[in-house]
Design a protein that fits this description.
By secondary structure, this protein is of the alpha+beta class. The protein has three domains: 74 residues, no CATH class; 58 residues, Roll (SH3 type barrels), CATH 2.30.30; 76 residues, SH3 type barrels, CATH 2.30.30. The chain contains four helices and ten strands. A five-stranded antiparallel beta sheet has the order 4-3-2-1-5. The chain has a five-stranded antiparallel beta sheet with strand order 9-8-7-6-10. A hairpin with a 2-residue loop joins strand 7 and strand 8. The longest helix has 30 residues. The protein is rod-shaped, with a radius of gyration of 36 Å. The N and C termini lie far apart (137 Å). 9% of the residues are buried. This is Basal-body rod modification protein FlgD. Keywords: Bacterial flagellum biogenesis. Belongs to the FlgD family. InterPro entries: FlgD.
Length: 265
């Protein structure tokens, strides 16, 4: 006859039977909940990855070790003193490392950083560090990656830092200059090809200032975004004509412009 399993069965009750080989669903859930608790039955804090082991947890472990040691083969007291000294030294080093990490992160505030993270469209995150957040051993940076939009990123995600005040001033000046181009025709050169179009808007992010330009390509109008630095010429209206292809120079003078040369007899 099969044995009925009590719904209150707990795998940590200490009572086992050879026939009780299966656990009901409730027992499995209870054990899962116990595994995710922050403290053991004796009150010892469960430390997860990325968290600190404090002195209280260490002393509880030490007390449990003393209470459960073999009285016929007890450890020497100096061994525990040595363990305490090692723990104290490691704790000081961990605290020092944590403070240095926090100090280093604080020096990023107000600077432009480039991250190794990308958004859903594949654009790389970059922006100005506004705040530093410390949670245990984890240090996060609060970064304004778009005007009015702030996100939290790990300090380890930082790839590049712009700490030049002049660079930040240039960043702001580029924004003002780009705004003044709205509605005007611009000629752009990225080193590979030259394009011209009308500026429709300006976009600013941590990577710099870009302009939204409406160009005509293959008989169709389309909007593109180009860095402000690519602009080489600006005019109120009209097109740039031969300026777009300066390498195609006209022949120097026609037959009618050739100078008359008097033949010597």
């Amino acid at each position: 006859m099969p044995t009925a399993i009590n719904s209150n069965y707990s795998p940590y009750a200490g009572k086992t039977k050879t026939d009780d080989k299966k656990e009901d669903e409730k027992g499995i859930i209870e054990r899962s909940n116990e595994a995710t608790e922050t403290k053991t039955e004796r009150g010892t804090r469960i430390v997860k990855k990325g968290q600190d082991l404090d002195k209280n947890a260490f002393f509880k472990i030490l007390a449990a070790e003393l209470a459960n040691q073999d009285p016929t083969n007890a450890k020497d007291g100096t061994e525990y003193v040595s363990q305490l000294a090692q723990f104290s030294s490691l704790e000081q080093m961990a605290n020092l490392n944590s403070m240095m990490k926090l100090t280093g992160a604080s020096s990023f505030i107000g600077k432009v950083v480039l991250l190794r993270r990308f958004d859903e469209q594949g654009n790389q995150y970059a922006g100005i560090v506004r705040n530093v957040i410390k949670n245990g051993d984890e240090v996060k940076l609060s970064i304004e990656y778009e005007p009015g939009k702030v996100g939290e990123f790990l300090m380890e995600d930082v790839l590049n830092i712009t700490d030049d005040i002049n660079e930040n001033s240039k960043y702001n000046n580029d924004l003002l200059n780009a705004v003044s181009l709205i509605g005007k025709n611009v000629l752009m050169d990225d080193g590979k090809e030259k394009l011209s179009g009308v500026v429709k808007g300006v976009v600013r992010n941590g990577l710099g200032v870009s302009i939204k330009v409406t160009i005509t390509k293959d008989g169709k109008e389309q909007d593109i975004y180009v860095p402000f630095e690519y602009v080489t010429n600006v005019q109120e209206d009209g097109d740039f004509g031969d300026i777009e292809n300066p390498d195609e120079k006209p022949s120097e003078g026609g037959e009618e412009n050739k100078p008359e040369v008097e033949e010597k007899k």
